[in-house]
Predict the 3D structure of the following.
Amino acid sequence: MNNSVARLKDHMKKIEQYQTIENLLYWDLATMTPEKGVDSKAEAIGFFSTEAFRLSTSEEYGSLLKELSAPENYNTLEPAIKVTVRRELRDYERFCRVPEDFYTEYVTLKARSQRAWETAKKASDFSVYAPYLDKIIQMTKQYVRYMEPDQKPYEVLLDMFEEGMDSQTIDRVFEELKEGLRPLLKKIREAEQPDLSALKGIYPISGQKKLQDMLLSYMGFDFTKGTTAESEHPFTSEIGSGDIRITNHFREEDPLAAIFSAIHEGGHAIFDQNIDPSYAHTSVMQVNMMGLHESQSRFYENILGRNPGFWSPIYTKLGELLPHFQEVPFDTFLKAINHVEPSMIRIDADEVTYCLHIILRYEIERAIFNDEVTTEELPALWNDKMEELLGIRPATDAEGVLQDTHWSDGSFGYFPSYLLGSVYDGMFLEAMEKELESIEEIMSKGEIMKITKWLNTNIHQNGSLYTSREVIQRLCGKEISARPLLDYFNKKYSEIYSF
Ligand code: ZN
């Protein structure tokens, strides 16, 4: 059996080599590639991805996985190998049903479509992107039908991004949220609004970059295992083991966007940097459960990053790196980072209205995959839903349907994981404060690393050994519920807005 496990790890290592190249090419496309270099990179991605695909679907690999999954062998395996065999066999069987030509065309289209999205977004012109998006939608539907012909496509996609998740659970949790958020948002909007004019100013990008590095170190990002760059849309990428990179997007007049993107992506990176290295070449190393991943980035971004305790030990440093902050009283800064106001752009949204941005995308994706809306109708549907949920209407496609990159690379089913992440965070916060003390007290003493260590021990080191549901059961002893998140919101915002 040991020999078969060694062969499994060897094979996974080979696949990882191709993925490393693929991720490096994606990284380059997003951060460096000049316009005329896009096609060759897209083609190279198609090539390496197809090679990895061939390895994942080779007959030899299939028989190895089947051998390991036979009960008499499977029962003797250690947990990480069991998880790996289960996932790899599921993916093997799925991939074997996808024709290779189709797969190459799909991957190449996704890479090209991303650039089309960028161009369309810059010009705020949906029509440039619509043909690509339409093709991506059709091909994604077909892709999923090949993989799981007997299941509903959107259920398969949800499960791909968050193992074990289904629309029934999401419907229940999102409804609970919608109901709880409506009265909260109303109270916040009726309360006296803060004066944030002191923040208006210029914050040089060189200073913002230094601040980003300072914040990342403060949280526990390890610069010997990662680096940073700039891109249109911030993201985190693993370029092989020991190399977890993040990107950011800077605007001189808006330092808060870059600050919170850095904290968010830093949270993703800290998760990946702290997975137990003994899981190398098993699927536990790759956390494809995006709800769990987003729970970590969003824990840092919102639960920690919008708490006064996060900033009190380091606020003077902000003024040193970006002098305009010297004119912003600490209390005004806290009000600014916790200001709740319906706005058009998801990634700039406050943590309360953010939930509604995700519910909007979830409802639209459901409509796309139930064939209830055409690609052409998407901009109008988007705007109508913004009005219904947030009470505002986008004036342009750039601040509406074109704002996110996810659909351009076929990541339908990803959006709900952001909000699931926050829902899990409400539950993790409860468990953490029960065991330690209040996070505000810990951080005020300058001991944020105590929190990072708690997350390392209880969540990060296990990689994807457990599903989110299992992590929550182990840490909180409960089923997934939006209640703790709503309790956290209500307590926090009734203090901030005095109601
Ligand atoms: Zn994220």
